């Protein structure tokens, strides 16, 4: 089967090319697709796309719509207005959806994460937020992540390393839950095996700033939905896919595992 991946873009996204390149390096048919190609009657016939043309959807990093209102808010509102029904069915069918950095923000604003309800994969309103970093500034540096998922997340099943390094580049990446419900949410995430990555120091210890670059609750760097096929994370695996991207001599680096895992998942089940 020819696996097809769509990396969705609008004005302001800026990591779609790296993401497309990562999938193509694994022999996957991937393309950057503008959101308007799914709904606008001004698009040429040969450029019109449907969600069902693809086996995986990716919301890449960047600053969609300039991050006005809130990071990811405008992109998610546009997706919700034109693709909600198809996207909900896509998720229910088990197809994977990935959100990286700004894409994680989009999935949170969309109500697709934390995604506690398997029968209703997109909530009516956001159930968590990615707030301004504690430092009150843009943070751009390598981060170390501890892989804590026990096998539910389809994007990390081939990850054998306990600690990986992916860079971050964001101003709004602090995971927060409704005030007074933090522990309740945390218990649900742990019980459901939805926590995927947590920030750690180089020795693998949970640590505060600068190792946790944003002050995220429980050092959370990435989570998946209860079904395991929607995954959002703030660090950028596409920027650590090839060794040369992080100054290493080896051909591939830690970011490869995310893309390799979902490709393997699709080859086995679809």
From TrEMBL:
Any one GO BP annotation for this protein: 'de novo' IMP biosynthetic process
Main localization (coarse): cytoplasm
GO CC terms of this entry: cytoplasm
Catalytic residues in the record: 101 (nucleophile), 236, 238
Cellular location(s): Cytoplasm
InterPro entries: Class_I_gatase-like (IPR029062), PRibForGlyAmidine_synth_PurQ (IPR010075)
Pathway: Purine metabolism; IMP biosynthesis via de novo pathway; 5-amino-1-(5-phospho-D-ribosyl)imidazole from N(2)-formyl-N(1)-(5-phospho-D-ribosyl)glycinamide: step 1/2
Keyword Methyltransferase: no
Keyword Nuclease tagged: no
Pfam families attached to this UniProt entry: GATase_5
Catalytic reaction equation(s): N(2)-formyl-N(1)-(5-phospho-beta-D-ribosyl)glycinamide + L-glutamine + ATP + H2O = 2-formamido-N(1)-(5-O-phospho-beta-D-ribosyl)acetamidine + L-glutamate + ADP + phosphate + H(+); L-glutamine + H2O = L-glutamate + NH4(+)
Gene Ontology MF terms: ATP binding; glutaminase activity; phosphoribosylformylglycinamidine synthase activity
Gene3D superfamilies attached to this UniProt entry: 3.40.50.880
Organism superkingdom: Archaea
Assembly and interaction partners: Part of the FGAM synthase complex composed of 1 PurL, 1 PurQ and 2 PurS subunits.
Function recorded in the entry: Part of the phosphoribosylformylglycinamidine synthase complex involved in the purines biosynthetic pathway. Catalyzes the ATP-dependent conversion of formylglycinamide ribonucleotide (FGAR) and glutamine to yield formylglycinamidine ribonucleotide (FGAM) and glutamate. The FGAM synthase complex is composed of three subunits. PurQ produces an ammonia molecule by converting glutamine to glutamate. PurL transfers the ammonia molecule to FGAR to form FGAM in an ATP-dependent manner.
Protein's name in the database: Phosphoribosylformylglycinamidine synthase subunit PurQ
Name of the encoding gene: purQ
